[in-house]
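Why does residue order matter? Because the sequence determines the fold. Keep that principle in mind as you read this record.
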Amino acid sequence: MIRKALVLSLVAGCAASALAVAPAFDPAVNLPTAQRPGGSAAGDWDGDGDMDLAVAADSIDRVIIFTNNAGAFSQTAEIFTGANTGPDTLQAADFDGDGDTDIAVVLKNINSVRVYTNNAGVFSAAGNTATGIEPRHMRQGDVDADGDTDLLTANRDGASVTVLVNNAGVFSANTFSAGDEVGGADFGDFDGDGDLDIAVGRRQVRDVAFFTNNAGVFSMTQNISTPNQRPGSIETADIDGDGDADVLASGDFLNLFINNGGSFSGPAFFNTGGQNPGDIAAVDLDRDGDPDIVVGDEDLNFVSALENTGGTLGAAMQFTTGLHPEQMAVADLNGDTMPDLAVPNRDSNTTSLLFNAIDPPKGCDADLDGDGDGDADDFFAYLDLFAAGDPGADIDGNGTIDSADFFAYLDLFVLGC
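Structure:
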């Protein structure tokens, strides 16, 4: 008789092998874009069910709208932000609560964020909200837990970050000191109390600082050095799968800070294969349930993808973009359900579309208990059916239950969910 421990070991090994999928992208498709593109965002601007793009360019100051037609993009509109406004990073969300997707743009030269509201694909300026000096690296989240989308900017020359609190489409700013030469910032519930805290990369002092949210008042509770590195972009994601938000920072390496109940350890360093890591995005590239990491390299002109391998990150794989990749947009751009990337290239005046080359997950034929996965419970459920001669064990459908059915089920299990 096969010992249960041995079967469990077999099951675990099969499941692990089924989920081990290395990141892969098709060669980049490069969209011509205006001079010096920087920020990008994805959203269904026209309401047809696929994801369109917006790209900010600071020459001439504008946001360019690209419409998606079955994965093929064409420029359909331009939103001029005003001379010398310096449009930079973008975020897309339904800021005014009317059911369609709007666009927020950092105007770094005039120290503000402007929201453009969407009305059936036509965008209108909804006003500016002041930030600190030279805002960059805008992120979004519901910081006051009222159901609408708020914003966050890292103000590089203002030694500050700004929280832009959204109240039915009207924003109010809370700017607070965060340390000299702020490189990036992001929201995350670090202490598990249900509201969003903030992590800040501080280039001048070479550390990442963690600010705890107490009813909208932010206070620094921890800072951790990034030895000899000047952290830039910040991204939060639950890397180790324990339910709390970990933090990643770009520098000479990718820096990972693991959250242990509100206290951070690290950083662990991961080589991206580049020289100047820039924008970071956490995205489940292989749809195995955990976030993988993509990092743009501003000097060597590629993005690196690092697979999440059970709470740590695997070896970086590089995928070519144009010159000096900037803020990435993550979305399913070709309708195959898999996350793709749009990467503006500042010095080649293009936006690279990197379509995910991993096949979408198939239906879960190994799921016998109906919980959406194929795990040890399903394996033992099949053994029970097989031993009882139950018709449900007839995998090959030939009317008999034999070893061929057992191995057919094992094949389904190895394929995973």
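The radius of gyration is 23 Å.
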